[in-house]
Specification:
Layout (H helix, E strand, L loop, with lengths): L1 E5 L2 E3 L5 E7 L8 E7 L6 E6 L6 E3 L7 E6 L4 E6 L8 E8 L11 E2 L2 E5 L2
Parallel strand pairs: 1-10, 2-11
Antiparallel strand pairs: 1-3, 3-8, 4-5, 4-9, 5-6, 7-8, 9-11
C-alpha cells in the first residue's frame, strides 16, 4: 500500500521545511507512524515516531528540539516540521507505518520518499 511523501526541497542551513505523508488504503488512525531518512552511503535511520492518537511522540537525538512530528487523522496525513536544518539533515525522507508504538515497521506500506537537501 503506497504512502505519498511530499514537501522536500533545497534549503539553506538554518532554514525550515514541512514534510507531508498522505496515507490511503488502511485505517490511518489505528497505526503509529514514523519518519525515517536515508542519506547517501548510510543506512536508513529513524527520525521520529508518533502514536496513533498523536498524544505521544519519540524523537531521535538528531531531531530533538528541531523537528516536530504531527498527524491529522481526519485527513489521513502525517507531518514533519523541520526547523534549523543542518547540512547533515540531507537525505531522502520516508514515512512508515509501525505495527505498534515504537514497534516494528510494517513492510506492506511504503513510499518513494521526498528528497531534502540542505546546502549553502
Amino acid at each position: 500500500v503506497p504512502l505519498v511523501e511530499s514537501g522536500g526541497g533545497l534549503v539553506q542551513p538554518g532554514g525550515s521545511l514541512r514534510l507531508s505523508c498522505a496515507a490511503s488504503g488502511f485505517t490511518f488512525s489505528n497505526y503509529a507512524m514514523m519518519w525515517s531518512r536515508q542519506a547517501p552511503g548510510k543506512e536508513r535511520e529513524e527520525v521520529a515516531t508518533i502514536a496513533n492518537t498523536g498524544r505521544s511522540a519519540y524523537y531521535a537525538n538528531s531531531a530533538k528540539g528541531r523537528f516536530t512530528i504531527s498527524r491529522d487523522n481526519a485527513k489521513n496525513t502525517l507531518y514533519l516540521q523541520m526547523n534549523n536544518l543542518k547540512l547533515e539533515d540531507t537525505a531522502v525522507y520516508y514515512c512508515n507505518v509501525r505495527r505498534s508504538y515504537l514497534g516494528a515497521v510494517d513492510p506492506n506500506y511504503w513510499g518513494q520518499g521526498t528528497q531534502v537537501t540542505v546546502s549553502s
